[in-house]
Amino acid sequence: MPNLEHPAYPAATLLHLESLVPCRESQVSMLLSIFGERQQFSFPSIFIYGHTSSGKTYVMQTLLNTLQLPHVFVNCVEYFTSRLLLEEILIQLQSCSSEAEETSHVPCDSFNDFVRLFKQAVGSQELQDQTFYIVLDRAEQLREMEANILPAFLRLQELTDRNVTVVLLSEIVWELFRPNTGCFEPFTLYFPDYSIGHLQKILSQNHPPEYSADFYAAYINILLGVFYMVCRDLKELQHLAVLNFSKYCEPVVRGEANERDTRKLWKNIEPHLKKAMQTVYLREISSSQWERLQRDDGEPGQLKGLSAHTHVELPYYSKFLLIAAYLASYNPVRTDKRFFLKHHGKIRKTNFMKKHEKTSNHLLGPKPFPLDRLLAILYSIVDNRVAPTANIFSQITSLVTLQLLSMVGHNDQLDGPRYKCTVSLDFIRAIAR
What we know:
Residues 216-283 form the ORC5 lid domain. With 433 residues, the protein is α/β, with parallel strands linked by helices. It has helices spanning 11-20, 25-35, 56-66, 82-96, 111-121, 125-128, 149-154, 156-160, 196-204, 213-227, 234-254, 262-276, 287-296, 316-330, 336-340, 361-364, 371-381, 390-401, 425-432; strands at 45-49, 71-75, 132-137, 164-170, 187-190, 369-370, 405-408, 418-421. The protein is built from 19 helices and 8 strands. It has a 5-stranded parallel beta sheet, with helices on both faces.
């Protein structure tokens, strides 16, 4: 029995729509009930929010295109000023009207002009007989525009006296949108994150025709078991599924295992999934480079130019400052004299170790250090003499801005600022080379 039912649309169309939006049937059903029939007035404005990759944009595009509802779809990041945004809506609106012969540029300097031109554009009999939808994706950018833009869009139906609904798509909640002066409250609809069961169902739909659905579903189950705790992004998981499937199939292709030998397939794919964990979200390498890397059984950092660490370009002394900060964070203060002074005197050998010093400092994390200790280590590791100029101090500030260092405490503390080094040992090794 289909989950989507509406008297205004054919059952076959709704069944097709349901197949296109898996795990979002309740949200689509709610939108259908809000939209009503084509000729009915819908709610003036709808605010849809949810985390990234929760299906907001895809569901709206699929819903409007499948039901063939007249609409314009505008990304507010691409059209980042009010003039560009309003003109793009009018240009797309022209193409929706069958009476318009060709799309032309329409100058629109203010929202008053937009209301006037919008009323003219939807004056055709075809658009008057049904609700027109304006979908604004990444709507949080509207907050950076003029103060009247957001309130005017929310009550566009009232201003134009036309059957129009404005749909705002955003990743942040409505409370961060609401102007201080107040505005018309939109109908809010939340898109929750996909659960692991939803991701399993959606990803399993893309199985290659040469393999059975159960075989690909088992592969997706393994993939989610590894990546679900660190990555919930559907697009990223789709990319990882496509990228690593050929490696999962290798024992089957070579004839060493059949599709039911899950244990043997897992042992083959496990080390490669661990390598892929290092590049989640980073896009450090292309798909072709990753496939070549898997054939060669190499490490991700072995291909020249793949690691993000090799792309970090820092000034000459900033690199030494970062190395000095790492040494200050992970070495105890009492070892500075032994490590950084040439004539430090005789060191008495002893087997005595405090109980807490048996733990590796890398496991305990970075320790804060004062500015004078950082500069003292810097002067000892740089070959030539370094003057404590404003340039050195500005580079320390730049490292904090880049989040390679973090400041501990407040700027106005009497004993001077304290810092922590936030980068890993591999990063420092790449810088030191």
